[in-house]
Specification:
The protein is α/β, with parallel strands linked by helices and about 425 residues long. The protein folds into 2 domains: about 5-240 and about 415-434, 3-Layer(aba) Sandwich (Rossmann fold), CATH 3.40.50; about 255-415, 3-Layer(aba) Sandwich (Rossmann fold). About 50% of the residues lie in helices and about 10% in strands. It is built from 18 helices and 12 strands. The protein has helices at about 5, 10-20, 35-40, 65-80, 95-115, 120-135, 155-165, 180-185, 195-210, 220-225, 270-280, 300-310, 325, 345-350, 365, 380-395, 395-415, 415-434; strands at about 50-55, 85, 145-150, 170, 210-215, 235, 255-260, 290-295, 315-320, 330-335, 355-360, 375. The strands form 2 sheets. It has a 6-stranded parallel β-sheet with strand order 2-1-3-4-5-6, with helices on both faces. A 6-stranded parallel β-sheet has the order 9-8-7-10-11-12, with helices on both faces. The longest helix is centred in the first third of the chain and has 23 residues, at about 95-115. It starts with a helix and ends with a helix.
Length: about 425
């Protein structure tokens, strides 16, 4: 297998060569824009109903916001008569994936060692995943789609290269800022070859995209720093099709005030800060129940923390498929996250008419209007979180007012119809341009 097959991205070779101080001599050629444009412009005028490919580098379906977003987008578009296909790596033949992996792994190590004298495990493993996913995507007939919508920077790079031939409208929705988030949590180090590698992939995803659809305005500044133009970014806040509680009011006859946190039990969701905050509130929580909904890698550690802090009011419910029912019994919703984009759980809580306490992260302040639909605190501050909880525990009128305001806002701005209408409008505009 030659270098062209293993590394079909000349811009990545150039970036790594520059990092290691080599003179680049990559030579992979692509179809010219003019050539591809002539090919597509011979088609008939755009259709009212589209054939859309939604693709992600991550597993689908899966637990988490990205998977929920894709499912919501697909459902909404299909309800309007559009044809939607969803593609992710876990949908392909495991035997084929194994075959490609066995071929490419030693060749990647050989490529890096011969060219740079060593190889980086994280980049080698990542390039293997991209190579296998790309080989799978090569079997998909992209010609039949009117719209391509990549849900991550890696898929945007793969489809972007293919799209030099097809020249379809290619939309890109980042669900997080990949490189900066990993630098922030010390997963990769500043100035490392990994930072150079992933930054180049993020920049190229932006270049390949016809337009970028972001979940909140918080994405704009970091995307612009990577080369995006503000005019090429549109914010479409996620909407959901939330079940109506059959005309019933939220349950209020419970003897205890219920505080609920719905989130994966991971280190970035801040459950430990919530537990620390609760230690400051013990004289206010004798009639309070705290429900922790979700599961994940931190469960064991959090259960030990609960026991060590003697937080008898905390109950772990695990993963649940009846979240709306739980929220209907909830008085205060809290999400103490220290790193997030636009949490679906907050949107669900707002539709349920619950006062929300969350943090100044990502697009959360675009959802929660401080002291109107909830309370915003700084991430990683148990003291601020305790103060906010104390206020809402002791002031029923304030939390009811915030919950009512949250429900009105959600009904007006956070519905699937609102979300799909805006995205379809973008699809239509760019399809007509082609």
């Amino acid at each position: 297998m030659n270098n062209e097959i293993v590394f079909p991205y000349p811009y990545i070779i150039d970036t790594l060569d520059q990092y290691y101080g080599l003179k680049s001599h990559s030579s992979k050629k692509s179809v010219s824009k003019e050539q591809s444009k002539k090919r597509v412009l011979s088609k008939k005028a755009s259709k009212k109903k589209f054939s859309i490919l939604i693709a992600t580098f991550w597993s689908f379906p899966h637990v988490g916001g990205l998977s929920n977003y894709i499912a919501t987008l697909s459902k909404g578009l299909k309800s309007q008569g559009h044809k939607v296909d969803i593609i992710s790596p876990n949908q392909f033949s495991t035997s084929k994936v194994k075959q490609f992996r066995e071929i490419v792994t030693p060749n990647l190590k050989h490529f890096f060692t011969k060219r740079y004298g060593s190889y980086n495990d994280r980049i080698s493993n990542h390039k293997r995943l991209i190579y296998v996913y790309e080989k799978m995507l090569e079997t998909v007939d992209l010609e039949k789609y009117d719209i391509l919508h990549a849900q991550d920077l890696f898929t945007a790079n793969i489809l972007g290269r293919f799209n030099e031939f097809y020249n379809k409208p290619l939309f890109y929705t980042p669900h997080g800022m990949f490189t900066s988030n990993r630098l922030r949590f010390n997963i990769i180090k500043k100035g490392s070859v990994e930072e150079a590698y992933f930054t180049e992939l993020e920049s190229k995803a932006i270049q390949y995209a016809s337009h970028i659809i972001v979940l909140s305005d918080s994405f704009r500044e970091p995307l612009i720093r990577l080369g995006a133009k503000n005019k090429n970014i549109t914010t479409v806040i996620t909407g959901i099709d939330y079940p109506v509680n059959r005309g019933q009011e939220k349950e209020t006859n419970s003897r205890k005030l219920v505080i609920t946190c719905v989130a994966r039990l991971g280190p970035r969701k801040g459950h430990n800060h919530l537990f620390e905050a609760l230690t400051h509130l013990k004289k206010y929580t004798s009639n309070v129940e705290v429900l922790i909904v979700g599961d994940g890698q931190m469960r064991g550690k959090l259960e030990k923390q609960k026991k060590a802090l003697n937080l008898s009011m905390v109950k772990f419910l695990g993963s649940r498929d009846d979240v709306p029912s739980i929220l209907n019994k909830t008085d205060i919703f809290v999400l103490p996250t220290i790193n997030d984009s636009l949490p679906l759980s907050i949107i669900e809580a707002m539709h349920s008419g619950i006062a929300v306490i969350s943090t100044n992260c990502g697009g959360i302040p675009e959802l929660i209007k401080h002291n109107k639909t909830g309370i915003i605190v700084e991430p990683g501050s148990p003291e601020q979180l305790a103060h906010a909880l104390k206020f809402l525990i002791n002031h029923k009128e304030a939390r009811d007012k915030m919950g009512t305001n949250a429900k009105v806002y959600a009904k007006n701005h956070l519905t699937i119809d609102s979300m799909i209408g805006k995205i379809k409008h973008l699809y239509t505009n760019f399809r007509e341009m082609n």
